[in-house]
TrEMBL record:
InterPro entries: DUF58. Keywords: Membrane, Transmembrane, Transmembrane helix. It holds the Pfam family DUF58. This is DUF58 domain-containing protein. It comes from Mucilaginibacter terrenus. The chain crosses the membrane at residues 12-38, 44-61. Residues 209-359 form the DUF58 domain.
């Protein structure tokens, strides 16, 4: 009995309408001192309020399980994307209720205003949808759902608690990966800014010998096969397949820098996931290497259907380290793991020319055996500073330093090109599109 009484009090809340009605009663009692003709009207008003409160409490508590609510969430969340979630709510009261709903979302979102209001008729049910955008990978713990129900009287509110604690993992942006995958299958990648690259020359991978038809390249006629069959036969070629594409992700301290809530490491991880998936769709082999002060995860290139899931699981666990990149360890790993000429996409960040020069000897040695593509980031915050007018001496000084850093980025691109190394200088926002464009360009020009 005591437990039921405690449960009654802990789940009972007074509404704003209750305090307004109580204030009105107080005003009536106050006026009764100055206007005796009010008589017993203040007392009648008070007892009417007490009666309404009792009736309201009886209406709210007469049914034990009067409201049902449940969270609808995916099995995993996609990092940096808007993930759709929903709350299913059902009214089992015999009257219309006003409901306020609180969903206890993970602390990582730092939101305290996840409050939904709705009205439900007797027996009605609704699905309330909302979205969450995580900016860090890892495990996110959801709590309970709490529904505050009010009757048409609206003086009291009863809280219904629904324990639905669950932990959802936040993976690299698989929603973005699926979006690019669908566009690649339907040949509509240009809608995301992917350029159509004109193929230069002819692919060298032989497919079959077929009968010559008007429009075929006369230079591909197979004269020996034509003599045997008594008709013109031509060689058919297809895009070269099974080329190895490795995404190498630097997870040292230079990748900790945040842009729009997401670290450079997460931008690189999302771009690597999409690039690996596009490479697999192009029948190439996709692999992965991570490195910081020592070599991290190594996943050999493959083109099996399960490869993209393996890459996703590896990227989910990667975290930023706080030491310098060990380029010697990276070079040794590449020499031991990557046995044939491959495209190596190295995601890192260089803020100054001396930082590049420390890595350059190892980059040159890697580029001798493979096609190396260095991807680093444009500092968008510095770009905003350089575009603003300088109005005083301090702003001139700040703008000059910002322009110096921006100029160093362009010098890094030239230095890499002078040593025969491909490079991409991209904003974090456009990293995925820029990287895929470069991959398709290198593949079309048969650089791999």
């Amino acid at each position: 009995m005591k437990k039921l009484i405690n449960l009654f009090y802990t789940n009972l809340f007074l509404t704003g309408r209750f305090f307004l009605a109580l204030s009105a009663c107080s005003v009536f009692f106050l006026f009764a001192f100055f206007f005796p003709w009010l008589g017993i009207i203040p007392e009648l008003t008070f007892w009417l309020l007490v009666l309404l409160i009792l009736v309201d409490a009886l209406m709210l508590y007469r049914v034990r399980t009067a409201v049902f609510a449940k969270r609808h969430a995916p099995e995993r969340l996609s990092n940096s994307d808007d993930n759709e979630l929903g709350i299913y709510i059902e009214n089992r009261y015999p009257f219309t209720i006003s409901a306020g709903i609180i969903d206890e979302i993970p602390v990582q979102f730092q939101k305290r205003d996840v409050w939904f209001k709705t009205t439900l008729k007797a027996g009605e049910h609704k699905l309330i949808s909302y979205s969450l955008r995580p900016v860090k990978r890892g495990e996110y713990e959801f709590g309970s759902i709490r529904v505050f129900a009010r009757s048409p009287i609206g003086l009291l509110s009863r809280r219904h608690n629904f324990e639905q604690a669950e932990t959802l993992p936040v993976y690299p942006s698989f929603l973005q990966m699926r979006k690019y995958e669908l566009m690649a299958i339907s040949n509509r990648l240009n809608e995301f800014g992917i350029k159509k690259i004109r193929r230069l020359g002819q692919s060298r991978e032989f497919e079959q010998i077929k009968t010559y038809v008007a429009g075929d390249d006369p230079r591909s006629i197979n004269w020996k096969a034509s003599a045997r069959h008594g008709t013109l036969m031509t060689n058919s070629y297809t895009d070269e397949k099974s080329q190895q594409v490795y995404c190498i992700i630097d997870k040292s301290r230079v990748m900790k820098m945040p842009f729009e809530g997401l670290s450079l490491l997460d931008y690189a991880i999302n771009a690597s996931l999409v690039l690996s998936n596009v490479a697999l769709l192009k029948q190439d082999k996709a692999g992965l290497i991570t490195v910081a002060e020592k070599t991290g995860s190594v996943l050999q290139a493959d083109r099996k259907h399960a490869q993209i899931n393996k890459i996703l699981e590896v990227l989910y666990k990667e975290k930023t380290r706080y030491l310098e990149t060990n380029m010697e360890a990276l070079y040794s790993t590449i020499r031991n793991v990557v046995k044939q000429r491959s495209l190596l996409v190295f995601f890192t960040n260089y803020e100054s020319l001396p930082a590049l020069q420390r890595h350059l000897p190892f980059l040159k040695r890697i580029a001798r055996h493979h096609l190396l593509l260095v991807v680093f980031f444009e500092n968008t915050e510095l770009k905003h500073v350089t575009e603003q007018p300088a109005n005083d001496v301090e702003s001139i000084y700040v703008k000059t330093i910002a322009e110096k850093f921006a100029y160093d980025k362009r010098l890094i691109v030239k230095e890499l090109a002078a040593n025969g190394i491909q490079s991409i200088l991209s904003t974090p926002k456009n990293l995925t599109v820029t990287t895929i464009n470069k991959y398709l360009e290198l593949k079309a020009r048969q650089k791999i």
